[in-house]
Structure formats: C-alpha cells, structure tokens
Amino acid sequence: MFVYSLKASTLKIFGIVGLSVVALVVMLNMIPTYGPTAASVLYSEAASYQYANVKTNDDRIGFLKQFGWTVEPTPLEEQEVTIPGEFDKIFVSYNELQKQQGLDLSKYRRKGAVRYTYKVTNYTDYPGTVYANLLIYRGKVIGGDLCSADVSGFVSGFDGKVKLP
Asked: pLDDT value at position 52?
C-alpha cells in the first residue's frame, strides 16, 4: 500500500479556492437568460393586485375596481359554497382559469367559502348582462370570474382577457 501526502501552504489553498470561485462565476454568467414567459407575465400582473383584506362589501367593490369594473353596490347573491375535494373536468378547467390569475383553488379543497355575485355595469365588450363572482375565504379572494348571463356566453378572469371556451 502506498500513501501519498501533499503539503500545501495557506496561500496555495486560498489561491485554489479563489480560482474555483472565479471559474464558477464565469460559468454561471455563460448560462443563457431568456425573456419573460407568458406565465411569469400573468403572475407578475396578478401579483400587483390586492387579494387579501376583502372583508366588507366596500372591500369587495374596491377589489373589482382594481380591474376597472364598476358594479351595483349590493350583491345579487351571497352563498356559502364548499370547494370540492375531487375536481371534475369542468372544475379542473375553472381552476386553470384561476391559476392564470395567480390563484389556485386546489389549496382550498373541502374548505367552505362564500361566493358573492355582483352585476357589472361597465362591461362594454358584451351586449348582455355580465356578472362578477368572488370566492372569499377568511377575508381573502381565492377565486372568481366574470361571466355572461347567457348559456352561450363566456367566463373570464377578473381582467376580462383570459376566457374559458
């Protein structure tokens, strides 16, 4: 059996560590960077909205005002709902819409929430009646949508841009 030993001075050890750090920094700077993805742009836009502290009717109206919507001052409906434990095909599609808004209903499976429905008064891209639905859990908006009253209408996110077919 052969044993080989190497003596190195403190200066040599610090030199090797320093060169290793410099080489690592150079290699990290060579990794290409890409522009923002569509998901990151949607998330950054969603992050600029205030989803918490939505406890009163004025808070809910103010929440919708962030997106440019004006609604009738009293909700048309206030209903206790339970987020299902298992999502069917329709609810999976609805949750995809929520994810595009920076929200995710899967975190609230089997939890009780309150759905508030308001009539939107300034929606100009659709001639019929449009409703805003807010899902509130413990003073926080966890989901919601804008939708038309017609069967052949639409469902979209709060910004009105992302729509479900």
From this structure: 92
In a domain, 25, yes or no: no
* Distances 146 to 23, 34, 54, 110, 158 between C-alpha atoms, Å: 53, 33, 18, 23, 6
Residue 38 lies in a domain: no
Count of domains forming the chain: 1
Dist. CA 152–CA 154, nearest whole Å: 7
Residue-wise pLDDT for 93-146, tens only, equals 999 999 999 999 999 999 999 999 999 999 988 888 999 999 999 999 999 999
Q: What end-to-end distance do the CA atoms of the chain give, in Å?
A: 74
Is residue 32 in some structural domain?
no
Is 39 a domain residue? no
pTM higher than 0.85: no
Domain, as residue range, for 99: 50-164
Contact between residue 80 and residue 162 where contact means Cβ atoms under 8 Å apart: no
Q: Where are the beta strands (DSSP E) in the chain?
A: 77-82, 112-120, 130-137, 140-148, 155-156, 163-164
The residue ranking higher by pLDDT, 10 or 121, is 121
